[in-house]
Amino acid sequence: MSGTPPTQKIQLDASNLRGIAHPLRLRILSRLRTDGPATASDLARWLGVNSGATSYHLRQLADYGFIVDEPARGIRRQRWWRAAHANTLIRDELLADHGEGVTVLRILAQVWSNDMLLAVDAAPSLPSHWRDAQDFSDYCLWLTPTEAKDLIRQIHSVLRSRRVNGARDAEEPARFTVQLQMFPTLDGE
Prior knowledge:
This protein is mostly helical.
Protein backbone atom coordinates (compact mmCIF):
# COMPACT_ATOMS: atom_id res chain seq x y z
CA MET A 1 0.00 0.00 0.00
CA SER A 2 1.30 3.44 -0.83
CA GLY A 3 0.47 6.95 0.30
CA THR A 4 -2.02 7.45 3.12
CA PRO A 5 -1.75 5.03 6.04
CA PRO A 6 -4.65 2.70 6.78
CA THR A 7 -7.42 4.14 8.92
CA GLN A 8 -7.19 1.42 11.59
CA LYS A 9 -5.96 2.29 15.04
CA ILE A 10 -3.29 0.75 17.19
CA GLN A 11 -3.79 0.59 20.94
CA LEU A 12 -0.82 1.00 23.19
CA ASP A 13 -0.43 -1.81 25.67
CA ALA A 14 2.35 -3.34 27.73
CA SER A 15 3.75 -5.16 24.69
CA ASN A 16 4.25 -2.14 22.40
CA LEU A 17 4.50 0.86 24.71
CA ARG A 18 8.30 0.93 24.81
CA GLY A 19 8.39 1.14 21.03
CA ILE A 20 6.94 4.62 21.02
CA ALA A 21 8.25 6.02 24.33
CA HIS A 22 10.87 8.36 22.86
CA PRO A 23 10.40 11.95 21.63
CA LEU A 24 12.18 11.36 18.31
CA ARG A 25 10.09 8.25 17.61
CA LEU A 26 6.91 10.23 18.21
CA ARG A 27 8.13 12.99 15.87
CA ILE A 28 9.09 10.43 13.20
CA LEU A 29 5.73 8.66 13.45
CA SER A 30 3.87 11.97 13.30
CA ARG A 31 5.83 13.05 10.22
CA LEU A 32 5.14 9.74 8.44
CA ARG A 33 1.43 10.01 9.27
CA THR A 34 1.08 13.57 8.03
CA ASP A 35 3.48 13.63 5.08
CA GLY A 36 3.46 10.02 3.95
CA PRO A 37 6.33 7.66 3.21
CA ALA A 38 9.91 8.84 3.61
CA THR A 39 13.48 7.60 3.90
CA ALA A 40 15.69 7.85 6.98
CA SER A 41 17.70 10.58 5.23
CA ASP A 42 14.57 12.61 4.41
CA LEU A 43 13.32 12.32 7.99
CA ALA A 44 16.74 13.23 9.42
CA ARG A 45 16.84 16.38 7.27
CA TRP A 46 13.26 17.40 8.17
CA LEU A 47 13.75 16.75 11.89
CA GLY A 48 17.26 18.17 12.16
CA VAL A 49 18.95 14.99 13.42
CA ASN A 50 21.53 12.61 11.96
CA SER A 51 20.41 9.74 9.74
CA GLY A 52 22.03 7.12 12.00
CA ALA A 53 19.77 8.08 14.89
CA THR A 54 16.78 8.24 12.56
CA SER A 55 17.54 4.76 11.17
CA TYR A 56 17.82 3.31 14.66
CA HIS A 57 14.48 4.77 15.75
CA LEU A 58 12.81 3.71 12.49
CA ARG A 59 13.87 0.11 13.18
CA GLN A 60 12.47 0.36 16.72
CA LEU A 61 9.16 1.71 15.42
CA ALA A 62 9.03 -1.10 12.86
CA ASP A 63 9.85 -3.79 15.45
CA TYR A 64 6.83 -2.67 17.50
CA GLY A 65 4.48 -2.43 14.48
CA PHE A 66 4.08 1.36 14.29
CA ILE A 67 5.63 1.68 10.82
CA VAL A 68 6.22 -0.65 7.89
CA ASP A 69 8.70 -0.87 5.06
CA GLU A 70 7.49 0.28 1.65
CA PRO A 71 9.77 -1.65 -0.75
CA ALA A 72 8.05 -0.50 -3.97
CA ARG A 73 9.57 2.96 -3.54
CA GLY A 74 13.11 1.86 -2.78
CA ILE A 75 15.91 2.41 -5.27
CA ARG A 76 19.14 0.51 -4.57
CA ARG A 77 19.89 0.89 -0.86
CA GLN A 78 17.21 3.51 -0.30
CA ARG A 79 14.61 2.22 2.18
CA TRP A 80 11.20 3.90 2.46
CA TRP A 81 8.95 3.75 5.52
CA ARG A 82 5.30 4.59 6.13
CA ALA A 83 3.02 4.69 9.15
CA ALA A 84 1.17 1.44 9.71
CA HIS A 85 -1.79 3.06 11.49
CA ALA A 86 -3.61 6.37 11.30
CA ASN A 87 -4.16 6.71 15.06
CA THR A 88 -2.62 5.54 18.30
CA LEU A 89 -4.74 5.10 21.41
CA ILE A 90 -3.53 4.72 24.98
CA ARG A 91 -5.51 2.11 26.86
CA ASP A 92 -7.05 3.36 30.10
CA GLU A 93 -5.33 0.76 32.26
CA LEU A 94 -1.93 2.16 31.20
CA LEU A 95 -2.87 5.50 32.77
CA ALA A 96 -4.40 4.17 35.96
CA ASP A 97 -1.19 3.32 37.82
CA HIS A 98 1.09 6.25 36.87
CA GLY A 99 3.17 3.81 34.85
CA GLU A 100 4.54 3.83 31.34
CA GLY A 101 1.33 5.17 29.80
CA VAL A 102 1.78 8.38 31.77
CA THR A 103 5.41 8.52 30.61
CA VAL A 104 4.28 8.33 26.98
CA LEU A 105 1.67 11.06 27.58
CA ARG A 106 4.37 13.26 29.15
CA ILE A 107 6.58 12.77 26.07
CA LEU A 108 3.63 13.57 23.81
CA ALA A 109 2.88 16.71 25.82
CA GLN A 110 6.49 17.79 25.43
CA VAL A 111 6.44 17.22 21.66
CA TRP A 112 3.08 19.01 21.29
CA SER A 113 4.20 21.91 23.45
CA ASN A 114 7.35 22.32 21.36
CA ASP A 115 5.25 22.27 18.18
CA MET A 116 2.99 24.98 19.57
CA LEU A 117 5.95 27.14 20.61
CA LEU A 118 7.38 26.82 17.08
CA ALA A 119 4.02 27.91 15.66
CA VAL A 120 3.87 30.90 17.98
CA ASP A 121 7.43 31.89 17.06
CA ALA A 122 6.62 31.56 13.33
CA ALA A 123 3.34 33.50 13.48
CA PRO A 124 4.84 37.01 13.00
CA SER A 125 6.55 35.95 9.76
CA LEU A 126 3.41 34.43 8.21
CA PRO A 127 1.43 36.33 5.59
CA SER A 128 -1.68 37.89 7.14
CA HIS A 129 -4.09 35.44 5.46
CA TRP A 130 -2.27 32.53 7.14
CA ARG A 131 -2.14 34.32 10.52
CA ASP A 132 -5.91 34.87 10.21
CA ALA A 133 -6.35 31.13 9.57
CA GLN A 134 -4.79 30.03 12.86
CA ASP A 135 -6.31 30.01 16.32
CA PHE A 136 -4.78 29.93 19.79
CA SER A 137 -7.69 29.76 22.19
CA ASP A 138 -9.09 27.78 25.05
CA TYR A 139 -12.49 27.11 26.55
CA CYS A 140 -13.48 26.28 30.09
CA LEU A 141 -16.51 24.00 30.03
CA TRP A 142 -18.53 22.33 32.77
CA LEU A 143 -19.25 18.80 31.52
CA THR A 144 -20.22 15.43 32.91
CA PRO A 145 -18.01 12.49 31.86
CA THR A 146 -20.75 11.47 29.39
CA GLU A 147 -20.91 14.97 27.89
CA ALA A 148 -17.10 15.12 27.65
CA LYS A 149 -16.94 11.78 25.82
CA ASP A 150 -19.68 12.93 23.44
CA LEU A 151 -17.86 16.19 22.71
CA ILE A 152 -14.63 14.30 22.02
CA ARG A 153 -16.49 11.94 19.66
CA GLN A 154 -18.02 14.90 17.78
CA ILE A 155 -14.68 16.72 17.44
CA HIS A 156 -12.92 13.60 16.20
CA SER A 157 -15.72 13.01 13.69
CA VAL A 158 -15.31 16.53 12.27
CA LEU A 159 -11.51 16.16 12.09
CA ARG A 160 -11.72 12.75 10.38
CA SER A 161 -14.14 14.19 7.79
CA ARG A 162 -11.68 17.01 7.01
CA ARG A 163 -8.79 14.59 6.66
CA VAL A 164 -10.75 12.63 4.08
CA ASN A 165 -12.83 15.35 2.45
CA GLY A 166 -10.58 18.41 2.71
CA ALA A 167 -11.82 21.00 0.24
CA ARG A 168 -9.52 21.79 -2.66
CA ASP A 169 -10.34 25.05 -4.31
CA ALA A 170 -8.44 27.96 -5.81
CA GLU A 171 -6.59 28.61 -2.54
CA GLU A 172 -3.30 26.86 -1.94
CA PRO A 173 -3.72 24.42 0.99
CA ALA A 174 -1.21 24.08 3.82
CA ARG A 175 -0.78 21.37 6.40
CA PHE A 176 -2.42 22.36 9.69
CA THR A 177 -1.73 20.80 13.06
CA VAL A 178 -4.78 20.45 15.27
CA GLN A 179 -3.98 19.75 18.90
CA LEU A 180 -6.76 18.65 21.18
CA GLN A 181 -6.09 18.40 24.87
CA MET A 182 -9.23 17.86 26.89
CA PHE A 183 -9.07 16.94 30.54
CA PRO A 184 -10.85 17.65 33.82
CA THR A 185 -9.28 20.35 35.99
CA LEU A 186 -10.26 18.83 39.30
CA ASP A 187 -8.11 21.08 41.49
CA GLY A 188 -10.52 24.01 41.19
CA GLU A 189 -13.71 22.33 42.39
